[in-house]
# Entry
Amino acid sequence: MDLLLTVPGASPEEIARGIAAANEVLDRAGISALEAADGMFAIEGWDDASFADESLPTGEENEAASAWIEASRAALDACCADWPAEKRPVAADLQLVDSATQLADRPTALAMLRALTAAQDGNGEFMNSQIGILADRLAVDLDNPRDLIAAVTVAFTRLELAGFYPAEPIEPKRQAVYDAINALEAATKMPTSH
# Structure
């Protein structure tokens, strides 16, 4: 399974270097990326369960989680090796790739967001998880994109669930999504911090 590394301000070459370092750690440990991520998930689940005995991770899960943590550190170290200390983040966002949407570049993410907005008929029942992923891909180089990403996902959810409010016109909701996408696009045109 492929890995995705997100470090705001990192070049594609730096990201590739970080992913290679993470894969090297996992290979050396003899643990697949999926096993390592599952181990980390077990540790986080134990934490969420207030460290309850019945949720205690197994020895294998602990070993896998340790490999994931080491791979994340190696990814950050390799990615940001040439960065000044004050610009270097404290952690890397290392993830498993489970959807091609996670790999969308900026133009593709914008096009997909706009196409999904245009096609939305308002009769959805559940939030489209692609929206948040695409907004996140678009905002990858922003230092604090949470509010912009949330604006896109909330506006899209209102559009998607418009069928629950038949008395309200749908087009203003569609326009709100376009406005949120445009604001996110404008923010991503700003220079990065690295």
User: Anything to note?
Assistant: Residues 39 and 59 are 10 Å apart (CA to CA). The mean pLDDT is 88. The first strand starts at residue 3 and ends at 6.
